[in-house]
Amino acid sequence: MALTAAQVQKLNVQFKGIPPEEIISWAVKHGQTPVVTTNFRPYEVAILHAISEVRGDIPVVWCDTGYNTPKTYKHAEELTKRLNLNIQLYVPKQTTAHRDAVMGIPQIDDPRHAEFTEQVKLEPFKRAMADFKPDVWFTNLRKGQTALRDSLDILSLSKDGVLKVSPFYHWNDTQLDTYLKKYKLPNEHNYFDPTKVLENRECGLHS
C-alpha cells in the first residue's frame, strides 16, 4: 500500500473517532501483506481481539525477548488459544541463559545496553519484517505513551515506508477497560521489558 504523507494526514483526520474494527477493515482491504506485532503487554489484548474479529489469519509476530514474566507467558498462551491467533514466534539467536552468564541485563547507562537491545528485540524484529515483508503493520501504539508516539497518529509511515496502523491510538486506559469488559477479555499488568527500564522510554522498534 503506497501512500504519500499528505494522504496519510488526510486519512488520519477522517479516521479519528472511527471504530477500530472499521479502520482495520479498511487497512486489510487495501493492503496485501498485513502483520500485527505484539509483546502481550497491558492492553495488547484489545488490538489482538479487534484484528481477530476482522481477519483471523493475519500473522501475529511475537518477538519474545526471553525475559517475560511467568504471568505474561501464561497470558500469551491463553490469548493465543482463545483468539486462535496465527502466532509467529521470533526469539534472539542467543539463549537467555547464555546472555545472563556473559552480559546480564545492562543498565540504561551501560555501553552494552545498545547491544543488549539489538540482541533481544531489534534483531528478531528485523528478521521477522524481512521474512514477512509487510505493507501494513498493525500496532497498539497510543498517544501519551512516549514523546515519539505523541508525534504519530492512527496511520503513520515507518522509515521503510510500511504503513503503521494503530486503531486504538486515541483511546485512553478507561476506554480500553470498557472495551475489555464488553468482550470479557483478560488483561495482564505484570509485564517486564528489559530494554526500556522506564515505562515512558521508547523501545526502539518505532524510532
UniProtKB/TrEMBL annotation:
It comes from the Bacteria. Residues 34-187 form the Phosphoadenosine phosphosulphate reductase domain. GO terms for molecular function: phosphoadenylyl-sulfate reductase (thioredoxin) activity. GO terms for biological process: sulfate assimilation, phosphoadenylyl sulfate reduction by phosphoadenylyl-sulfate reductase (thioredoxin). Pfam families: PAPS_reduct (PF01507). GO terms for cellular component: cytoplasm. InterPro entries: PAPS_reduct_dom, Rossmann-like_a/b/a_fold. Pathway: Sulfur metabolism; hydrogen sulfide biosynthesis; sulfite from sulfate. PANTHER family: PHOSPHOADENOSINE PHOSPHOSULFATE REDUCTASE. Belongs to the PAPS reductase family. CysH subfamily. This is Phosphoadenosine phosphosulfate reductase. It comes from Maribacter arcticus.
